[in-house]
Amino acid sequence: MELSLPKSYNNKIIKAIAEFNLIEEGDNILVGLSGGKDSAFLLYALTILRRNLAVNFNLSALTVDLGFAGSDFASLKDFCQKLGIPYYIKRTEIAEYILDEKVDNPCAKCAHFRKGAMAEFMKEHGFNKVAFGHHYDDAVETFLMSIIYSGQIMTLKPKRHLSHNDIFIIRPLIYLREKKIIEAGKLMGFKPLESPCPYDGRTVRAEIRALIREKQIFFNLAGAMRQGTSMELWPEEPPREELAAKMNELWTGKNNKS
Predict the structure, then answer these.
(1) Are 233 and 108 in contact (CB under 8 A)?
(2) Rounded to whole angstroms, how far apart are CA atoms 130 and 112?
(3) Pick the residue with more confidence: 166 or 70?
(4) What angle do CA 211, 216, 220 make, to 5 degrees?
(5) 169: β partners
(6) Residue 253 reports pLDDT greater than 90
(7) Which residues, 6 or more positions from 63, have their beta carbon under 8 angstroms from its beta carbon?
(8) 39: burial class by Cβ within 10 Å (0-12, 13-18, 19+)?
(9) Alpha-carbon distance 49 to 131, whole Å?
(10) Helix or strand or coil: residue 238?
(11) Which pTM was predicted?
């Protein structure tokens, strides 16, 4: 299988790797291969870079089988064989749990359990980093979702250390827009798997994506994600007891003076 990427793609991925120190000598990296366009492109791109970068690292791929009926990963196995990348499947029963009508926020729960399954696999097989296919659009969408739905200023970090498992999450595609990854699909000859999840396309993220389609809104949000950006925020909320005492003083102070 002949592998190639335009220079513009390589430059953005290498920029992320260099800026955030994503890949180091001797890393044993596991790519989370879901079967979607993003994770497949990530594996394809890292396979190319592994042959050309000055750092040596190992690369493998893992699919977490959520347990949906009829799931077939034969095409992913074939894709990895063509790339010359070791491929693993970890079976789980996550689908059975998240499809329970009593479960709140099933997408978040699914993501949590998938990461847990991957972390367990990594510890068993000696991987120190897991690479996810999140891109620039994902980061900006997460930033806005965090503000709107949790009241926190947070986004996807290009590199994150999970101290309880002593592993790193890395996101080498963080500077690539989604439309560029879609365009690159033609180079790979890979057909993404259709998601068997009934929640696919009906998530909060899909709603947020519709809000930031306007180009300037996207880049304004992207700029706001950076540390050092000009900020005017309310001060930290004081302890409840302290605030209650000040309020009480305001109410009673005049009477005390008189």
Answers:
(1) no
(2) 14
(3) 166
(4) 90
(5) 130, 160
(6) no
(7) 33, 34, 35, 73, 76, 87, 88, 89, 90
(8) buried
(9) 14
(10) coil
(11) 0.82
Strands 159-162, 167-170: pairing is: antiparallel
Q: What is the mean pLDDT of residues 160-167?
A: 91
Please give the distance of CA 230 from its chain centroid, rounded to a whole number: 26
Which of 35-39, 116-120, 130-134, 151-155 comes out lowest in average pLDDT?
151-155
At 255, phi and psi to the nearest 5? -65, -35
Angstrom distance (rounded) from CA 227 to CA 163? 23
Alpha-carbon separation of residue 182 from 32, 45, 139 (angstroms) = 18, 13, 17
Cβ neighbours of residue 164 closer than 8 Å, sequence gap 6 or more? none
How many CA atoms lie within 13 Å of 176's alpha carbon, on the beta-carbon side? 28
* Edge-to-edge strands, sheet with 129-131: 87-91, 58-65, 28-32, 129-131, 167-170, 159-162
Give residue 172's pLDDT: 96
Q: Which amino acid is at 109?
A: K
201 against 134, higher pLDDT: 134
CB 143 within 8 A of CB 221: yes
Question: 64 near 33, Cβ under 8 Å?
Answer: no
| Per-residue DSSP letter, 226 | S
Q: What counts of helices (H) and strands (E) characterise the chain?
A: 10, 6
Three-class SS of 95-106: HHHHCCCCCCCH
CA–CA dist 246, 219 (Å, integer): 42
Detail the DSSP E strand segments found in the chain: 28-32, 58-65, 87-91, 129-131, 159-162, 167-170
